[in-house]
Amino acid sequence: MYELDYLDHLESEAIHIMREVAGQFEKPALLFSGGKDSITLVHLALKAFRPGKFPFPLVHIDTGHNFPEALRFRDELAASIDEKLVVRQVGDTIKAKGLTEPKGKFASRNALQTFTLLDTIEEFGFDACIGGARRDEEKARAKERIFSVRDEFGQWDPKLQRPELWNTYNGRINKGENVRVFPISNWTELDIWNYIRREKIALPSIYFAHEREVLEHEGQLVATSEFIQLEPGDKVSTKTVRYRTVGDMTCTAAVESSASSIDDIIREIIATKTSERGETRIDDKVSEAAMEDRKKNGYF
Amino acid sequence: MDLLRFITAGSVDDGKSTLIGRLLYDSKSIMIDQLEAIERQSKNKEEGEIDLALLTDGLRAEREQGITIDVAYKYFSTPKRKFIIADAPGHIQYTRNMVTGASNSDLIIILIDARSGVVEQTRRHSIIASLLKLPHVVVAINKMDLVEHSQDVFNNIVIDYAAMAKSLGLEQVTYIPISALNGDNIVEKSTAISWYEGPSLLKVLENVQVQKDINLTHARFPVQYVIRPQTEELHDYRGYAGKLVSGVYKKGDTVTILPSGTSTTISAIETGGKQVEEAFAPQSIILHLADDVDVSRGDVIVKSDDLPSVGQDLEVLLCWMDSKPLVAGRKYLLQLNSTLVKSVVKEISYKVDVNTLEQHQAPEQAVLNDIVKVVIKTAKPVAFDAYEKLRVNGGAILIDETSHVTVGACMIQ
């Protein structure tokens, strides 16, 4: 009679983690990109803190290479729930610090995001940043704690992680350090979609099938945009696609799909033989430890 | 569909990683690109062998050194259940990592190599499972293919283990003969081990009853955060947000706020923005109280007819997790759910030998991976239960006040 579904378990755990952040930290933030995982975080925050206001702003580190649909959704969502949205531009950091932009066909600002993120943490004095990373995404993430302590340079040291016991989260830090908090660590991609379906959470249109001009590159479909240099001989065509993850236009690939509803998407994900990041993220393929290395440097 | 969290234990060569790889592989939770990645790294790929163990070693240093450094979490589901595996390393920093992984698990799989039977490691795993009060134990007797699938070998190991389990007070023990390498009795029943009539490992994992492990008798609600919108229309709104760690609360219940001891009644319960008549563990909820009483983070709201202990002197079984030794007289922060209080370790009473369970009297200090009985005095009264009675309100951590590291896992006696 008193039984909870697995999604209720995951939801309750995530709300508990968010409230621990509210209870333990002075200046938290919620990292919000307009993708499905961070949209789910916002939904969970509504459940954790309404009718009160969020005890943190939404913070987006904008590379300038985002999908316009995701940015529009980001702004509309923040306005509709009447919560504060802080946006900081990677382009501004590049100018101010004289950073060198990566070159090449799929030059991605993904790694440069870390500079802006760390600057933003310093600017506002954030002591905790809630993020939508999941342990099923990537093998280095499978190793990360729910409360992940970063040093004053934002670095993660996988060998010096605090043991995490029972449901007790230790958020004690020294000034200058901060904690990255991952309330949906224990969710898988399919859990997220099942939850989105159950809770009727709205998403940016690019998650659903639409026609788009794409460049075919090593088996991946990359949207053409002003950020990608086309070369003679490039195979460009219009296809019906959708996105499994929403990152930068330069490093996120689309999948061919006619899935136009959440039910369709769930059917596709159950049937797929390729992982979310494997299918769609170009940035993870740089090396075997690409994500681990980025995280050690302060990436979220 | 519900949720089972489990931990796997076994020494280095018992095939733990292979077992996890096999569970993920046979339940189709490994994707092609992930398989291709481990294929690339597998040393014997020319012979067509994929090293499933590589799936669980996520860090560069782990792959370079071929060792597991830290607990990793893995996920898979069947139509019946979602599973969370805490994959704790088998060798270095042994006790500490197992305690970490076991602290939020409902079940432990203890792997035994059929060729060696019950060994010192098996005993150590089982002792930790008994200290942590894991409700379910599955003994997977692995490498049955290397003992010609012998029923006698299996039976003898069962007899040995059962005797030990009894002495440790482990109650729910299930035995399965498996070959993780060949996939015998992992997901499907094995034809090679034809004499075994029980279910496959996955069937056991799917069917073990975990719902009854959630304590619905003793109601405990640690307050995490007070929600006060202070807007015009919600001027008087004051909700106590938290997770019901155990028990059931109904509107109208008489409750006591600890440690102060003030009593009042529950005037409303909210979950997900809706008012409900009752709530139960482990739901995250907002409670409203009939009287305007002083309640803040760290307080525990309990039913007045079922109070936990309240006091400043705690007898604790402690697993020490820091490389700096524990010395009696040192001060630490103790965190029990949302309660954070200064405390002092007054005395180390004895050390538990995790190989024999024997007690060694009054050691001068405890070092990394030691399990010791200590007496802790807290600066303020704390509301707690004995870990044995109620895991969720009897397990606490000790935090070093200067390094802020979690240095100890406390099971309050």
UniProtKB/TrEMBL annotation, chain B:
Q: Which InterPro entries match?
A: CysN_GTP-bd, CysN_II, CysN_NoDQ_III, EFTu-like_2, G_TR_CS, GTP-eEF1A_C, P-loop_NTPase, SO4_adenylTrfase_lsu
Q: Please list the GO biological process terms of this entry.
A: sulfur compound metabolic process
- Which Pfam families does this UniProt record tie to the protein? GTP-eEF1A_C (PF22594), GTP_EFTU (PF00009), GTP_EFTU_D2 (PF03144)
Q: Which UniProt keywords apply?
A: ATP-binding, GTP-binding, Nucleotide-binding, Nucleotidyltransferase, Transferase
Known EC number(s)? 2.7.7.4
The chain positions of domain Tr-type G read 1-217
Principal EC category: transferase
At the top level, the lineage of the source is Bacteria
Q: Does the keyword Nucleotide-binding apply?
A: yes
Q: Which Gene3D superfamilies match?
A: P-loop containing nucleotide triphosphate hydrolases, Translation factors
Extract one GO molecular function annotation from the record. ATP binding
Concerning PANTHER family, the annotation shows:
TRANSLATION FACTOR (PTHR23115)
The protein in question is named sulfate adenylyltransferase
To which species is this protein native? Answer: Filimonas effusa
